[in-house]
């Protein structure tokens, strides 16, 4: 069994039972640290990666995203899910071609979302959205790469639970292995999604202090990700310390920094 095959088999098995956290690194260093902490899988974050490149979320090219997937997947011994945004295409045929390229990077899973980036029409029309998931499913067929389909209504100004459930059910029928509606937060919303697509696993996004792993597990959630939240936490420390130097000419914020030897030691042993 090759390394990608081993990771893909492990990732598939994680989705069979229980509940696990799949945190989101934004570079090789953060990925290696998360793996050291004992997490069983990782997921890239489109926002965290884009910020590390000095760009806004959804601002990187498909080639940059694919190189990032390859870098992260090669850097750790655990499975990696690739946040592939909207597949970097509208047309289902181009989505399929791009997802095939993503599979070749060595990732164990890939996610496709239904947001358009257009504030006037933030979600792809229903039938097109389903065809895009079906195309992504065709691209991963035979590879054991796990396909996650995301419906983005709750984070793009269309928080309609009934429509979200309709889309997630259709995505499951189109071949998605895992379903994901970022932005749902209440126990009622989460439980409704879990019921709607059962027995397929559900991913829930946690970007703040509003729940726990134990609470989500009780609701039947299989997978928990944090999106760009870890990157935002890192940016907060950096912005606070750098801002103090720029505004005040003082360096108090650096007192809380992790000692050099502690960080450097992580990678001396890598």
Side-by-side strand order of the widest sheet: 1-8-7-6-5-4-3-2
- Count of individual beta strands: 8
> What's the total helix number?
11
Largest sheet: 8 strands, parallel
What portion of residues is helical? 40-55%
Report, as a whole number of angstroms, the end-to-end distance: 24 Å
Bin the strand percentage.
5-15%
Described by the principal axes of the CA atoms, the overall outline is globular
Unreliable stretches: none
Mean pLDDT: 97
Radius of gyration: 19 Å
Category by helix and strand content? alpha/beta
* SSE run: HEHEHHEHEHEHEHEHEHH
Structure overview:
It is a single chain. Helix content is 47%, strand content 10%. The protein has 11 helices and 8 strands. Strands 1-8-7-6-5-4-3-2 form an 8-stranded parallel beta sheet, sandwiched between helices. The chain is α/β, with parallel strands linked by helices and 270 residues long.
Primary descriptors:
single chain; 11 helices; alpha/beta; eight-stranded parallel sheet; 8 strands; 270 residues; globular
């Amino acid at each position: 069994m090759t390394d990608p095959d081993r990771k893909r088999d492990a990732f598939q098995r994680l989705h069979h039972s229980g509940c696990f956290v799949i945190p989101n690194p934004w570079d090789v260093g953060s990925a290696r640290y998360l793996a050291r902490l004992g997490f069983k899988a990782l997921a890239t974050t489109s926002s965290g990666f884009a910020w590390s490149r000095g760009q806004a979320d959804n601002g990187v090219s498909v080639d940059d995203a694919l190189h990032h997937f390859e870098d992260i997947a090669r850097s750790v011994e655990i499975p990696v899910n690739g946040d592939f945004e909207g597949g970097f295409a509208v047309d289902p045929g181009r989505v399929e071609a791009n997802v095939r390229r993503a599979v070749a990077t060595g990732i164990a899973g890939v996610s496709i979302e239904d947001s358009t980036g257009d504030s006037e029409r933030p979600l792809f029309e229903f039938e097109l959205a389903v065809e895009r998931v079906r195309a992504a499913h065709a691209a991963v067929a035979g590879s054991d790469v796990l396909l996650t389909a995301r419906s983005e209504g709750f984070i793009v100004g269309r928080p309609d639970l009934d429509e979200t459930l309709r889309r997630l059910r259709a995505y499951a029928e189109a071949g998605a292995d895992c379903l994901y509606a970022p932005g749902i937060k209440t126990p009622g919303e989460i439980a409704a999604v879990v019921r709607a697509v059962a027995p397929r696993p559900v991913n829930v996004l946690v970007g703040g202090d509003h729940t726990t792993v134990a609470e989500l597990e009780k609701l039947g959630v299989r997978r928990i990700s944090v999106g760009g939240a870890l990157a935002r936490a890192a940016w907060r420390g950096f912005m606070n310390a750098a801002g103090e130097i720029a505004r005040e000419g003082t360096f108090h914020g650096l007192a809380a920094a992790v000692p050099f030897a502690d960080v450097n030691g992580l990678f001396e042993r890598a």
